[in-house]
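In response to reviewer comment 3 from the previous cycle, which asked for concrete evidence that the modeling workflow produces usable outputs, we include below a single protein chain processed end to end. The sequence was submitted unchanged, and the resulting structure tokens are shown without manual editing.
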Amino acid sequence: MIKKRSYQDLTFNPDQIILLSHESVNEATEFQPHRHDWGQIILVKYGVVALDIEHERFIAPLGFAIWIPPNYLHSCINHLPARFRSINICAEAAAKLSQTPSLLQLSNIAISIIDNFFEKSPLALTTEQDYRKALVLIDELQNSMVAHTYLPTSQHRLLQPILQTLEKDPANRLTLKAWADKVFTTERTLARYFRKELGMSFNEWCQRLRFIHGIALLEQGETIEEIAFKVGYRSASSFIAMFQALSGTTPDRYRQIHNLDEKK
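The workflow returned the following structure tokens.
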């Protein structure tokens, strides 16, 4: 059963640019649809966060961030546990950033400032130095926006049932031709719609889906062999090759870099 949660209402004082909070969600948790007049960055620290922003799906694994501009209707349903940092940006500062929801590629400077902010106890930016750092962070964020989601979705009548089925079962290995038969079209037509609607091929979309699920299973302490099987690979070596192609490192090295063994 899905547990419903409401969002935290915030009040910015005149001299506040950024308000911070840690968020942890259990499995089967939903933040109900809402909107607010400030901007928000969701920076994933554990698990996978899935957001619906004005009917567009954004999925971000560990290390990724999602930008939600002011007044965009959004909700979040998590099927597995997750932790994220919420970086809330006042309306005036948010107006300087993209007014389109997007993934973020944070610079090293932005990451350092955010890490420094979240080392504070309590999470309050109160000094003149904090204020100056917040201004630098806003400048850095202007060049961080990515105009696409990591795992796009579509409401297209042919694609939607395929994408929904695969998200529920990433181990599904049906070929594009087999899917075409199921939705009563041709393989060529289906391939064209994947490119047109999602900006990538069927195989690339499936790889990204399995990569995201693989990260979530790594965080739960599963072995590489177990993960490979659960996301649809017949061997650990095939999963490792895919993971390395998308992340630039092996699953074991990824686990070490992010100290996942310590977070189990």
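The longest strand covers residues 18-25. We consider this sufficient to address the reviewer's concern, and the full set will be provided in the supplementary archive.
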